[in-house]
TrEMBL record:
Gene3D superfamilies named among the record's database cross-references: 6.10.140.2220
PANTHER family xref list: HISTONE-LYSINE N-METHYLTRANSFERASE ATXR2 (PTHR47436), SET DOMAIN-CONTAINING PROTEIN (PTHR47436:SF1)
Protein name per its UniProtKB record: MYND-type domain-containing protein
High-level lineage: Eukaryota, Viridiplantae, Streptophyta, Embryophyta, Tracheophyta
Keyword Iron among record annotations: no
Domain of life the protein comes from: Eukaryota
InterPro entries reported in the protein's UniProt record: ATXR2-like (IPR044237), Znf_MYND (IPR002893)
Length: 311
């Protein structure tokens, strides 16, 4: 309760409070009457990621998820990937178990029979901005700012690019300036997530968010106590914003797929738990930091493993 009170006070929104009821959990309640159009609460996303398949449909800021580019660019981007899918006649399928947990067989659900491909030059002119669609100037979008490291992450402003770098991306960037061993490890981690379930990409952001916040807290407090217990206490403080939303471990409560018999439920849950463990080890190879080693962020520390990989 103290955490929520401090959060609301820091955002200067004194018209609300957070209450907890055993039957219904936490809820936001009003301390006063609000008029239509009043701002109740504005806060930033702690951890988020655009779904891998959704990246085919639209281009958004990797930090605040605002649409970027232009209306023409957004349409051209989608038509381009639809034309690729149409040319090979593939479809998209997602699974929740086995070796294909969350995998996609294609980047788009478009098939040859259901699509009409525009000429390449038309699509290219939309992407490059050489063509303006009627009334699109009524819906301006911010220009695209690419990560200067990998150029794969794109943003709506330099402010979002800097915030993403400070919160997560400085540990997850796989650009040419990243050391080759770490870059290779990051590619393996992302490949595994794309082939199994991209919830692991969100979990990676949760881990990097906590690691970077932990380092920042150490610098701010001029932390000198080197004991494992004290370091772990500081780590829990860094984890606190995410821990407020922690519920249950993903592999224990994910819905059982229709094609998995109830008698196989235990093996199904063990299988996705093993996938989560493999993902964590791949991430460890990519971002392990000696400064965080006393906190036992990875490996055998069961609490961290449970906290990091949850839904």
């Amino acid at each position: 309760q103290e955490y929520y009170e401090e959060l609301i006070q820091s955002k200067k929104h004194d018209g609300i409070r957070v209450n907890y009821k055993g039957d219904h959990g936490k809820g936001v309640c009003a301390n006063k009457d609000f008029a239509e159009g009043d701002l109740i609460l504005k806060d930033q996303i702690l951890v988020g990621a655009q779904h891998s398949l959704n990246k085919i449909d639209c281009v958004v800021c990797s930090y605040c998820f605002r649409f970027i580019g232009s209306v023409e660019f957004q349409i051209g981007h989608r038509l381009y990937f639809q034309s690729i899918a149409s040319s090979i006649g593939c479809s998209s399928e997602r699974h929740c178990h086995g070796s294909d947990v969350g995998s996609s067989t294609c980047s788009s659900g478009v098939t040859k029979e259901k699509s009409t491909t525009l000429p390449e030059e038309v699509i290219e002119s939309l992407i490059t901005g050489d063509v303006s669609l009627p009334f699109s100037d009524h819906f301006p979008l911010p220009e695209i700012i690419a990560c200067q490291g990998c150029e794969e992450e794109r943003y709506c402003s330099q402010s979002c690019a800097d915030s993403d770098w400070e919160s997560y991306h400085s540990l997850l960037c796989a650009g040419p300036n990243t050391e080759p061993p770490r870059r290779s490890a990051l590619h393996k981690f992302v490949e595994h997530a794309n082939e199994t379930n991209d919830i692991f990409l969100v979990a990676a952001k949760a881990i990097t968010f906590t690691m970077l916040r932990y380092k920042k807290l150490k610098r701010q407090n001029d932390f000198q106590n080197k004991s494992a217990e004290s370091n772990f206490s500081l780590l829990m403080e860094a984890w606190k914003p995410l821990s407020m939303g922690f519920k249950k471990r993903w592999w224990d409560y994910v819905a059982l797929p229709e094609d998995v018999d109830a008698s196989d439920e235990d093996s199904f849950r063990q299988e996705i738990r093993d996938l989560a463990f493999t993902s964590l080890q791949l991430l460890k190879d990519a971002i392990f930091d000696a400064e965080c080693a006393p906190c036992i962020l990875f490996g055998s520390h069961k609490t961290w493993f449970k906290l990091s990989y949850h839904e």
